[in-house]
Design brief:
It contains 6 helices and 20 strands. The protein is mainly beta. The protein has 2 domains: 211 residues, Jelly Rolls (Sandwich), CATH 2.60.120.10; 87 residues, Jelly Rolls, CATH 2.60.120.10. The strands form 4 sheets. Strands 1, 4, 14, 15, 16, 17, 18, 19 and 20 form a 9-stranded antiparallel sheet that branches. Strands 2-3-5-12-7-10 form a 6-stranded antiparallel sheet, with no helix packed on it. The protein has a 3-stranded antiparallel sheet with strand order 9-8-11. A hairpin with a 2-residue loop joins strand 17 and strand 18. The two termini are 26 Å apart. The mean pLDDT is 97. Belongs to the mannose-6-phosphate isomerase type 1 family.
């Protein structure tokens, strides 16, 4: 039977986390410092579970392995993408992620190219997006000297902004920001600077200067340029495409009939409510839900007033 796969997430306590995942999306967060909601994930550090239909109770990792027909019979053995929501009640560390080659050699997993859709941002909120160093030598000298004000590039953000963060990009999400992140399925992060803060046990978190210098890109980050197309009751904003994923924003105000053009889709309802009809079956949609439309779903109809972030493999 063709059916969407609605997913139950895992959540992660973070030194910089807060309570907005509960306040904004109604999630039953486990702590008052919950920073990450791994909405669609088969990564071993947090596997999503199917909540409905024929595969209820399956972890996404098991489903990908045992039922390749749902994903277009992929060549990969690892589910390649991960969707999460982050609640930055404080600054995340200044960090960088490796590419596939470095991550496979040193960490035994995929690299991490990612992108951010800004769901909410307090007045004056900023991110760190890139650095000023013109060479690896200058980068090394500024890091070793702790000259962060000179090195780091700060960028103001607001709700609705989008940032493409390929591997090698120095970055940090700032205080008062909520982000929907689409990324490769990886959990490798190299911290460059952590604002000299201590964890609950009074310890500084580890930093990774050498790895960071090894993988850092020299030069200003090149953000994507979203392209918006409206037709009848559907507006599609093309956000980014690379070797790993393609990401869109869908806005529905009425009814949209759609057909599958990729092996499968990852969908996150970021606002509104409505319904999706698949194979004659009606499923309710509301803000905060995350689901997959598998390869077995050829077409669907979405109705209501809804905003979704949608991704698929490229």
């Amino acid at each position: 039977m063709a059916e969407p796969l609605f997913l139950k997430a895992t959540m992660h306590d973070k030194i910089w986390g807060g309570t907005r995942l509960r306040e904004e999306y109604g999630y039953d967060i486990p702590t008052e410092t919950t920073g990450e909601y791994w909405a669609i994930s088969a990564h071993p550090h947090g596997v999503s579970t199917v909540e409905n239909g024929s595969f209820a109770g399956f972890g996404l990792d098991r489903l990908y392995q045992e039922h390749p027909e749902l994903f277009g019979y992929p060549n990969s053995t690892v589910f390649p993408l991960l969707t999460k929501i982050l609640d930055a009640n404080d600054w995340l560390s200044v960090q960088v992620h490796p590419d596939d080659a470095y991550a496979r050699k040193h960490e035994g997993e995929l690299g991490k190219t990612e992108c951010w859709y800004i769901l909410a941002a307090e007045r004056g909120a900023e991110i760190i997006y890139g650095h000023t160093a013109k060479s690896r030598q200058e980068l090394t000298e500024l890091i070793e000297a702790g000259n962060w004000d000179q090195l780091l590039t700060r960028v103001p953000v607001k709700a609705g902004d989008f940032f493409y963060v390929p591997s090698g990009t120095m970055h940090a999400i700032g205080k008062g920001i909520m982000v929907l992140e689409t990324q490769q399925s990886s959990d490798t992060t190299y911290r460059v600077y952590d604002f000299d803060r201590k964890d609950a046990e009074g310890k500084l978190r580890p930093l990774h200067f050498q790895q960071s210098i090894d993988v850092m890109t020299i030069g200003k980050p090149q953000n994507s340029h979203p392209d918006r197309l409206a037709a009848d009751d559907l507006t599609v904003t093309f956000l980014v495409a690379n070797d790993f994923f393609t990401v869109y924003k869908w806005e529905i105000d009425g009814t949209a009939d759609m057909r599958r053009l990729a092996p499968y889709y990852l969908l996150s309802v970021i606002d509104g409510k409505g319904n999706i009809v698949v194979d004659g079956q009606d499923y309710q949609l509301q803000k905060g839900q995350h689901f997959i439309l598998p390869y077995t779903v050829d077409s669907w109809k979405i109705s209501g007033q809804l905003e979704l972030i949608v991704s698929h493999i490229s």
